Amino acid sequence: MTIANAFAFGVRIRIVVFFFCFNALLYMSFSILRDDWRRLAAYHLYPSTSNVTSDDLGSDTVASNIVENVASSTVTSDLSPKPQFAGKANATLVFLARNSDLQGVLRSMESVETHFNHKFGYPWILLNEEEFTEEFQESVKSKTNASVQFGLIPSRHWYQPDWIDEAKAEQGRNALKAWNVIYADSVSYRNMCRFNSGFFFHHPLLQPYRYYWRIEPDVDYFCQLQYDPFDYLKDNNKTYGFTIAIEELEKTVSTLWQAVKEFMEQYPEYIHPNNALAFLSDNGGETYNLCHFWSNFEIADMDFWRGEAYTKFFEFLDLKGGFYYERWGDAPIHSIAAALFLDKNQLHFFNDIGYQHSNIVHCPQQPAFLTGSCTCNRVLSIDYRRYSCLPRYNKMLNRKW
């Protein structure tokens, strides 16, 4: 064989190898895309509804605050035989719901059990300002092999306090309604926000526990969780975990930041030197950029909420009346406290937990998407939308976006 022929033969071999590798790579790429679309088709994505409406409680009046309901009922599931669960942390799954939320509750429980709790077996605690019906309790217990408890919220922790100026509160509700703000005229929604901000972790059923995972009706989870997030928090000195960070509606928190600045001035000892203020403010704390962790999903340490700094913070804000005169939500209250009182490294973004509430979705990107066998559509993830605060969070931690 001449040198020319040998060279030509070598070229042909290289061309064959190149096309073989190229076709293999192309096939793998199409396979991944095909699997993504199959998962999406197999999992029906549809918008969910909130568990609170503006007329759920009918006529919300201050007079209804007089009734005190301090009892709590406890029901434990009795399915047998009991499986051996992997979950070992001092933790619980917490659900605030009403009897009318039953179908949404069952949907959320099925999603959580399928993607996580069927292996770990953490107990469920469901709270309501009214007694749960027998139908509700039996339906819920049928969805899990873990223990289930049902608790009644004390009236003093739920209803609008007597000291709130109802005329001023009504004026605030009407103003928000004129601006077409969601839950503008709902007193029950404000009750819920105040309860989640300052009282849920004091409920008798939650006292034995340190960590909690908040669940809401009509939410979806999309990834198989391969580890215990409660253990992750404990083992890595994390206090607060989230999946979605977005901007709050400015008109609902018009005076909140001014109140926060007053608190910081009066109690500088509670502000952590390595805090996450840069997540909340773009100008060193002069104004609030409206960023917060969306608290309908949160995995956190209740000892933080029960601690001195947060207790004083909530009491200070509560006396301002902003839960009722405006529409302060538990999401900005929790977020601001966590960002100011904790070391910023005690916050954690659970990127690998795919989650949807209403029409807002967090879908993990690679490699977490494949590791968790996720079924969500990554294109729909809020992480890349204009009103996502995740870029600010990453910038605050000096991470690349």
Structural summary, described in words:
One of its GO terms (molecular function) is alpha-1,2-mannosyltransferase activity. It is globular, with a radius of gyration of 25 Å. With 401 residues, it is an alpha/beta fold. It has 15 helices and 12 strands. The relative contact order is 0.14. Helix 3 links the parallel strand 2 and strand 3. About 15% of the residues have low confidence. It has 2 domains: 42 residues; 332 residues, Alpha-Beta Complex (Spore Coat Polysaccharide Biosynthesis Protein SpsA, Chain A), CATH 3.90.550.10. It has a 7-stranded mixed sheet. Strands 5-11-12 form a 3-stranded antiparallel sheet. It is 40% helix and 11% strand.
